[in-house]
Design goal:
This protein is an alpha+beta fold and about 350 residues long. Helix content is about 25%, strand content about 30%. The protein is globular. About 35% of the residues are buried.
Length: about 350
């Protein structure tokens, strides 16, 4: 039985929790941070003043907690008798920018959504349950996402790739452990990860998905000013993984933020790979860009020949990005601070 299927990729840029202590009231934040410093100092003393510790804990209620590994600080005589630290309480991501992110995702209404720049799975699940589902999807009569998956990648800032799917995910595979030689050093092959998933579309058909966030053109070493060498190694590895599939028969998608325009030589092992199609080519040349003004395409959905034969429509969802002249945006996007992202989403419809 044939059905419609929508797949999208979106670098949402801002799905991160934030320490609650850093609120809009700077004076209050500095005061609370002072209490944090005093509490940490008390917990380092050879002999504890439990009355003082309790007082500081009360002042920091809702903003910081003691992460006590073995639950002993309340009865400990001093620092030698317990193990732990003071931890800032993190607040849910729910400001105007994140609400616009939810608005974009709801309007896209993809069956399978690839997300880039997400902090961790609990943050994504909370965003889905508390904001996206309750305030946007349900009110529009749309379904939520049963399969919300993320594996921590190699970026120590917590910038990860993730998938939300209404279709069953049968298995996933991470490549965070792989190493490669770069600038005479062994480094992780992928800056974040190449996350592979097999998704069940129906009783007969499967989709193989490879989600990526390749090395950015920023933060580059002098020897590789645009990080083309590092990115090329990542792209070549993904191309190797693709070689294990029959692109004429299998439904396969390579998605994500490739962090380089389509004419970059670092992307050529993928963009010039036979039987692998960049869905943005279905659009007029002036409509293919996904970053800021739309000049450059940084975000991609590459599909196998088998899936290309099912492709019906492609569009770029730009309304979450602030552009004062070239592209229309939501009324709630009032500037760079409130935009959902500096990337647009790539959306493709298939009849499977």
């Amino acid at each position: 039985m044939s059905t419609n299927l929508r797949i999208a990729t979106f670098n949402c840029e801002n799905l991160f929790s934030r320490p609650k202590i850093f609120g809009e009231n700077k004076k209050e934040s500095l005061k609370l941070l002072g209490f944090v410093s005093k509490l940490q100092a008390e917990l380092c003393r050879d002999v504890f003043d439990h009355e003082k510790i309790s007082e500081l804990k009360g002042k920091l209620k809702g903003f910081a907690t003691i992460n006590d590994v073995r639950g002993k600080h309340n009865k400990a005589a001093g620092a030698a008798d317990w193990l732990g630290w003071v931890e800032l309480t993190r607040d849910k991501a729910d400001d105007a920018a994140v609400e616009n992110t939810a608005r974009v995702i709801s309007d896209i209404d993809a069956d399978i959504l690839c997300l880039v720049e997400v902090e961790n799975r609990p943050v994504l699940q909370k965003f889905h349950d508390d904001l996206l589902l309750k305030q946007y999807l349900q009110s529009a009569g749309k379904s939520g996402y049963e399969f919300i998956l993320l594996i921590d990648g190699n970026d120590d800032r917590g910038i990860d790739v993730s998938v939300m799917s209404r279709k069953p995910v049968l298995w996933l595979c991470s490549h965070v452990n792989e190493k490669t030689l770069y600038n005479d050093k062994q480094v992780p092959t992928f800056s974040r990860d190449c996350l592979e998933l097999q998704i069940k579309l129906n009783e007969e058909k499967m989709l193989h998905l490879m989600l990526n966030h390749f090395k950015s053109m920023g933060y580059s070493p002098p020897s590789d000013p645009l990080s083309n060498g590092r990115r090329l190694g990542q792209v070549q590895r993904v191309a190797e993984l693709i070689d294990g599939h029959n692109l004429q028969q299998e439904y396969l998608v390579v998605a994500g933020d490739f962090n380089s325009p389509s004419d970059s030589s670092s992307l050529s092992p993928l963009l010039q790979k036979p039987r692998l199609y960049n869905v943005n080519l279905k659009l007029e040349a002036t409509q293919r860009g996904t970053y800021r003004t739309g000049t450059d395409q940084l975000d991609y959905l590459l599909v196998s020949d088998a899936l290309k034969s099912c492709l019906q429509n492609v569009y770029i969802e730009r309304r979450g990005m602030f552009s004062s002249k070239k592209w229309p945006h939501y009324e709630t996007v009032t500037g760079r601070r409130t935009e959902a992202s500096d990337h647009s989403a790539v959306v493709a419809d298939f009849f499977i």
